[in-house]
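STRUCTURE:
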């Protein structure tokens, strides 16, 4: 166990020593990787902010149950009692024909149009919020309500909710795609960086092999270097993304929906920051592993 810890401690020291020997090249590589990682981070924060904004809205689907025009108040009350006792209904609100007419008459330009009609053309309406928002449950409830006596028609208002969810899903998919592409770029940059290190230390590695050094011993410092470079890039990307998000939140007008949320709706969650840090370390390690496998794999020499 002590030998294993000593070997890994030596590998980590070797990796850090190599980074110190070429500080400008290391810092430049870390900056490039951090910029690549910061972009999807900002995207994830913005998507999370948009999701919190939509959560403020009442996105529950609603049904409008229209009674026949000739329905009496007694018919409406009987249907209302029946629906209130029915399972699957979360809320029920009554809009009488008189209330609907008064609301329409308060709309500019409609009052003159309604004044020419002989009576009230609007039916009594029961506005229902289903207990289950799933599309299948909503359509099943609609089919049941349409079969009830005293119901003229049922209209479901879910199109805008589905459209909003579709937009958020598309934005989330685009951010994930960009993150995946930039993750490949991080692996490629790390692969190239470690490849140059292997080539510059080819003679040293060949001599070590002659003295019995194993492939694992030779690969280990490069793997640690890739992981350390990824961690440094992850920390810098988190700082860059958090700074950009803070500036973006500060620049938002006070009347926007985002500004009404705590922290103006945009903040870097610690879970996202930790995930980004672990992902950066993993991508750095993967790029280094691919590079050393290419150059220091079984049966291969360090030089090309």
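SEQUENCE:
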């Amino acid at each position: 166990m002590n030998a294993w810890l000593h070997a890994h401690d030596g590998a980590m020291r070797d990796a850090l020593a190599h980074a110190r020997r070429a500080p400008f090249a290391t810092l430049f590589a870390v900056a490039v990787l951090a910029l690549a990682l910061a972009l999807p981070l900002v995207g994830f924060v913005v998507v999370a902010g948009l999701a919190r904004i939509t959560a403020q809205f009442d996105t529950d689907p609603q049904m409008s149950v229209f009674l026949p025009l000739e329905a009496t108040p007694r018919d409406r009350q009987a249907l209302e009692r029946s629906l209130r006792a029915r399972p699957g209904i979360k809320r029920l609100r009554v809009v009488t024909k008189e209330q609907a007419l008064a609301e329409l008459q308060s709309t500019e330009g409609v009052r003159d149009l309604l004044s020419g009609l002989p009576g009230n053309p609007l039916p009594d309406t029961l506005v229902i919020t289903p207990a289950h928002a799933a599309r299948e449950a909503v359509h099943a409830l609609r089919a049941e309500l349409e079969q009830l006596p005293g119901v003229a028609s049922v209209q479901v208002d879910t199109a805008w909710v589905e459209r909003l969810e579709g937009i958020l899903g598309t934005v989330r998919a685009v951010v994930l795609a960009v993150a995946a592409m930039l993750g490949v770029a991080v692996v490629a940059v790390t692969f190239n960086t470690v490849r140059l290190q292997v080539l510059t230390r080819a003679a040293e590695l060949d001599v070590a092999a002659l003295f019995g050094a194993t492939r694992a011993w030779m690969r280990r410092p490069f793997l640690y270097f890739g992981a350390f470079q990824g961690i440094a890039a992850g920390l810098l990307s988190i700082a860059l993304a958090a700074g950009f998000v803070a500036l973006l939140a500060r620049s938002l007008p006070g009347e926007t929906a985002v500004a009404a949320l705590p922290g103006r709706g945009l903040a870097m969650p610690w879970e996202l920051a930790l995930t980004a840090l672990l992902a950066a370390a993993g991508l750095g390690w993967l790029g280094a592993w691919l590079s050393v496998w290419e150059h220091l794999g079984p049966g291969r020499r360090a030089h090309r």
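REMARK: The chain is about 70% helix and 10% strand.
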